Amino acid sequence: MCAIVGIYGNNNAARLASVALFAMQHRGQEATGISSSCDGKIYTKKDSGLVSEVFTDEALQYLKGNMAIGHNRYSTAGSDSILDAQPVFAKYKLGEMSIVHNGNLINKEEVRNELIDKGAIFQTGMDTENLIHLIAKSSKDRLRDRIKEALNKTVGAYCFIVQSRSKQFVIRDRYGIRPLSLGKLKSGGYIVASETCAFDLVDADFIRDVNPGEMLIFSENNEQPESIQLFEPEYRPCAFEYVYFARPDSVIDGKNVYITRENMGKTLAKNDANKDLKVDMVVPVPDSGVPAALGYAAQSGVPFELGIIRNHYVGRTFIEPTQEMRNLKVRMKLSPMKSLIAGKSLLVIDDSIVRGTTSKRIVKMLKDAGAKEVHFRVASPEIKFPCYYGIDTPNQEELISFKMTKEEVCKYIEADSLEYLSIEDLRNSIGADRNYALESFDGDYFVTK
Amino acid sequence: MCAIVGIYGNNNAARLASVALFAMQHRGQEATGISSSCDGKIYTKKDSGLVSEVFTDEALQYLKGNMAIGHNRYSTAGSDSILDAQPVFAKYKLGEMSIVHNGNLINKEEVRNELIDKGAIFQTGMDTENLIHLIAKSSKDRLRDRIKEALNKTVGAYCFIVQSRSKQFVIRDRYGIRPLSLGKLKSGGYIVASETCAFDLVDADFIRDVNPGEMLIFSENNEQPESIQLFEPEYRPCAFEYVYFARPDSVIDGKNVYITRENMGKTLAKNDANKDLKVDMVVPVPDSGVPAALGYAAQSGVPFELGIIRNHYVGRTFIEPTQEMRNLKVRMKLSPMKSLIAGKSLLVIDDSIVRGTTSKRIVKMLKDAGAKEVHFRVASPEIKFPCYYGIDTPNQEELISFKMTKEEVCKYIEADSLEYLSIEDLRNSIGADRNYALESFDGDYFVTK
Amino acid sequence: MCAIVGIYGNNNAARLASVALFAMQHRGQEATGISSSCDGKIYTKKDSGLVSEVFTDEALQYLKGNMAIGHNRYSTAGSDSILDAQPVFAKYKLGEMSIVHNGNLINKEEVRNELIDKGAIFQTGMDTENLIHLIAKSSKDRLRDRIKEALNKTVGAYCFIVQSRSKQFVIRDRYGIRPLSLGKLKSGGYIVASETCAFDLVDADFIRDVNPGEMLIFSENNEQPESIQLFEPEYRPCAFEYVYFARPDSVIDGKNVYITRENMGKTLAKNDANKDLKVDMVVPVPDSGVPAALGYAAQSGVPFELGIIRNHYVGRTFIEPTQEMRNLKVRMKLSPMKSLIAGKSLLVIDDSIVRGTTSKRIVKMLKDAGAKEVHFRVASPEIKFPCYYGIDTPNQEELISFKMTKEEVCKYIEADSLEYLSIEDLRNSIGADRNYALESFDGDYFVTK
Amino acid sequence: MCAIVGIYGNNNAARLASVALFAMQHRGQEATGISSSCDGKIYTKKDSGLVSEVFTDEALQYLKGNMAIGHNRYSTAGSDSILDAQPVFAKYKLGEMSIVHNGNLINKEEVRNELIDKGAIFQTGMDTENLIHLIAKSSKDRLRDRIKEALNKTVGAYCFIVQSRSKQFVIRDRYGIRPLSLGKLKSGGYIVASETCAFDLVDADFIRDVNPGEMLIFSENNEQPESIQLFEPEYRPCAFEYVYFARPDSVIDGKNVYITRENMGKTLAKNDANKDLKVDMVVPVPDSGVPAALGYAAQSGVPFELGIIRNHYVGRTFIEPTQEMRNLKVRMKLSPMKSLIAGKSLLVIDDSIVRGTTSKRIVKMLKDAGAKEVHFRVASPEIKFPCYYGIDTPNQEELISFKMTKEEVCKYIEADSLEYLSIEDLRNSIGADRNYALESFDGDYFVTK
């Protein structure tokens, strides 16, 4: 999970890119970067930290030019935040290029080993370096052909933007797993971004999603971006974007994320309808469980209540609690609304259960606060398989639903009942017209080397 | 608006005080400080910044002892964040003391001038300095009597905690305008805090509110705090705490804040019931408008929807938008949920309208996003008078309801309709059993010099 | 030891004050501050850190007005760098004032207790607060008379600058213990500063030293500062300024510090002349021992060599050396010039010996580097008494010359011989025309309460 | 100009490397970095800033293992301090390696273009990347043979240390232009460092200089480093190290830097001996001119005086002086000792003149301070050619001695006389037994592609 953006044909390119990255900060808070191009030179500024910290006025003034690409990096274990920040810049035979990437290349190691065998060096752990090498090593004359050739050797879930000194090449894999949309800036030029929530902030009109397998080329020669269909599309957008990642006000593949989440909640309610379940209120785990909880409440008629308060001041560094204050860390982020829930039966909704530890703590916190019963509902199916398509999931052994049945998980988290969406439910909640990437739930790793 | 806390009789006093201040960060983000007492010496650490930034492990280790008082300072125009941070420490005739204060002394200038006439000096603009001077100048032998004498000369809305080298004196004004509650720490000792949400985080049981006009004295001699009724109580808790300031999970004067806010929304809905008002959804201005919007939705049956998304990454410093990006600042904090609201009639609920500029921008943002109608509802009465009892309100000339009728405000913010709670509605929503401080709404400045 | 400065009648007052403080950074690196006055208001900015860190352009723009006072604070054990920074500001009966102070009031506790008895409070440990209280409590109508009255109750070594909203009052104690000089700015107006090295940097011409017991008053009414002789002068400038504190390019009481230090070295050489001492080179302990070593070399004919190199990159925070790297800390600051000194007999000159630990380490370091003999010479007499007149010396028990004879010290530091200046030598080296404050050497605490 | 260090076979490897880099901070203050190897993995930490800032305890704990290499980077125009920091890490066919480099490759562009032609990419502007590519592309099986092959294509002045997961390879070019010495750590293992001043601080004994054209290999298999003579040596150590770069306590090629500088000063004095030159004192431009000035004084009998004081508090950021304070920037670093020099004839010694602007300002400053005459002496020959062997010199057009004769320079800097060392003088001062790299003086670019 990361965010990418490209701005083309606007004199405020870097500034608009930074605003778009700001709107997509939820997709990555570890590091951020922007490359602009101006007069045949590429300027890059990247660093660890939030968008609002890295892109000072001074930084934005350095990033001259009317085109820019940008990236927000999600924190993953073992990565070096400064060295692994994007864009990745390189000088190569045709000049200079800079690349941003969102996704995961599943044949990364094979390509890497093959390249290394031929004498290539890799300075980071990022798979973005693969693409750069493949482009640089291509024997084609034009960058577009080099990119094509490179992509022929690249398997995975990816969205790339390659910026040369005067052009931008936008590519989305044939499955369209990771989202990518095209918009028109009211102040001139185009924007391509991982999520449409970025369009609103930079005052851009949504044109369409970038098609699976499509390459868009922005250049001075053409008023409109050139479109080349590189690969036969087999559209499989990632279901997890709807479940958890995307901002609720984004629209992915024509579907508003918030509404799909409400649908998930409604479906959970329908599934509970014929049960003899008596609960006093529907309580979301904030913030991600809120739309599903609203859907559940609307469908079931059970009142929706903010029974858990989220504290937004939790920073990155704070006092390590002593032994006496063990459960402090959870409670510093989430607080139970005691007066509201004491003596009540709660229907608690979260977007997903990964390891089960957080769910367990939430149930305990609510019961400690006096809840009579806690019925846990999950607005997604059981996660039994790790994702290799761009999402940072733990090893399969750490996935609680790989190790336990639903009944065992229910007991482990000490809930009074536990229900998930079925895979079919999830598909229907998002929209039955489409095949989705569901590998975390069904283990169908359809992207094969 | 500020937060204060006192911890007495616990070896982790400063650490617990910092956690309590963290839970009350919403009451002040400008500066924070703690004084502890140990072996006859008072230790103080205060600085500008958030609780999680100021109270590093090193700072907490410096703050030795089993008693501590703390303060979060709200940013007010013209104040110097470092110099005006609390606690305020002083050496005086009986030794050392340190004071925290939440509130506002309305006879501050008179007392100050009188003291200055007699040769006193004032090093800051804080009214806390007044009390220190009055205590120091008293001729009484015991600190408790000096405090009493000082309070006899002090008029206003206040909560003080005075810490000497071995005792803590907690005082709430006779009207109980600012909240202050007493709790028992499960790990030993007592806590006094502005809001009960702090109790949950430090694992304390609520005992009772500190009474209006009461002085509590914590000392080694007594297992339980000694209680002295200094003044005849005339209980008038501040209505604004329920409307806006307090965290929803706090309980003030026996009333859960979240529930009173839901009641306010329900009352707005009842008032709208006999009107011929057709709206598609109830939309809160996040985060403070959410409970009232839930109440309105529950009462009216109109669906509740998160039509406005709040971005929590807005930091203190970010790029100043250029002319082309004028409305960026509002939208960086709040985003409309376009797909949800386009073509819809919205019933938007905010907690209050002060100057009207934010409300105007919100209405415009929603209409730009396609809303057909925006009916604005305010979960409090019209604010016509500045508050002198501890809340940072602008001059009367800047209060839109001082200058305009309801109809004029509705036109100014370009809403399709506008309704407030009446003062009576507000009182009933919180609880008809009590007289509240409502001076911002009715101009009844009952605390007189 | 601290530095103070006053600028009067120049539109760049705060900027010039910051430059003067920068020139006097050697007198205090812990904290720094400036108060300016403009249109009846006093502006203050103070913080911990170096002058170049605290006085950003933003800070200097805030410090409006054509008069300013400033202060550099020396780090002393137990002080809180932010709270004890100067200037100290206060509102009092006649309005506002701000004060900077260099020195030490020896009747501080008595005055403080008396003031506290009468109801005064003290918020810091600084003796500057004493003067403010005394001024504020005076019954006189004019500030100058209040200051006079306050000084009548003040005993010690002091230089004060009191700034009101339109005037500056400069006072030096009757003994002139701490230095203070008056200059004329080429860009207009006046400067008063602890050391004349500040004059060079701000382009000012030295006029004269402020006289012992004199008060200078700068005001709009008078082109020239008004001079009032408050006390009968008994001039006793501090010998330690010449020995160690002052920058070598400063002129104190008409004597260039560098030249007096050369004289001290010459005297040491004369004292050694009739001994049968064979050394190969004179080596200073950098930087403070350099002028005396040059004097010794010039007088004796023994070559001067930089046998010890000083590393100027030693910052405030660095790796704590492990057990294996014990002596690292000294050597990170000072390195022996091995090739130069190996097998040689050295005459090492330092300005003073306080506790003896540094001298011991230096001798060891030189011997480890191969020095055959190390003859230690000290360009001051034995320090047997703590200073109470503004210098941060340790307790008498820690002064090695209080506990040991010269022979014992020589043995302790493992030098081959050890010589000090006699008190008479020191007086003659600075200038026999004057009586000096020599209390650290002779115990003559002539400033009595 | 940069510094490199390698530590092999010591459990405190990274810590010792950081201490050695601290001792060589004068060779580069822009950025610093260390790579350690442990259990088959290479750990790297690098950042902009001083050694004492970057290498916190946390950083050093991360850098596990018993071998480490480190680098200090000198600031050069146009470089990105973070991206261009060293060591440079890469994964390649044989595993992982990390490299540090001091010097300059003069065939950098040719090699780069050739590599790029074959499909290589370059992510930075550092010539270190060249070597990594050449090593990675070599077809040899062993790293030592790959390095050899890579060096066969590499022309320039260089010192490299290549660290694999278990070995270190140290290489110095055949001319030995940049210094590199081998030492034995008293706490176990070996150190290789640019300057011997690092040995003193880490408690190491100097063994010998790394030979020109030599490769040293440290591995577990051998107690002693293996030595391979890769190239026929043609020893030409850089004269500029003696003139300016190296710390005075370092020994390069058997010659103590301080003593060679004294010799330069003595030679200047001998050259002046038969002139009718009457000066009152020898004044060094601190700090680099001090040893030569001591030599001049010793030879001539003219007294040595510190007529210019250097302020060591000059930080990286400070107030930009206004127009009125134009000459402030020079004077903030250097102050004239007015009382000492007023009315006197000075013989001022600096190590070199590059552009002439600083010399001009120094002469003006001294004359403004009252100096009667300023005779300028330069302890090196006229710099007429830019250096391509690792020293950051300006373009030839900016070199004042390229554009002007000695007489013209003298007039330009407004000195009363000006003398340089001849090239022969310089060679003799350092040691006539050796041929030096003197290209900046004589234009003999002996390292040819």
Automatic annotation (TrEMBL), chains A, B, C, D:
One Gene Ontology molecular-function label:
amidophosphoribosyltransferase activity
EC number(s) per entry: 2.4.2.14
Q: Which PANTHER family match?
A: AMIDOPHOSPHORIBOSYLTRANSFERASE
Q: Which residues bind Mg(2+)?
A: S288, D350, D351
Q: Does the keyword Repeat apply?
A: no
Cofactor, free-text remark: Binds 1 Mg(2+) ion per subunit.
What's the protein here called? Amidophosphoribosyltransferase
Q: Which residues form the Glutamine amidotransferase type-2 domain?
A: 2-221
Extract one GO BP annotation from the record: purine nucleobase biosynthetic process
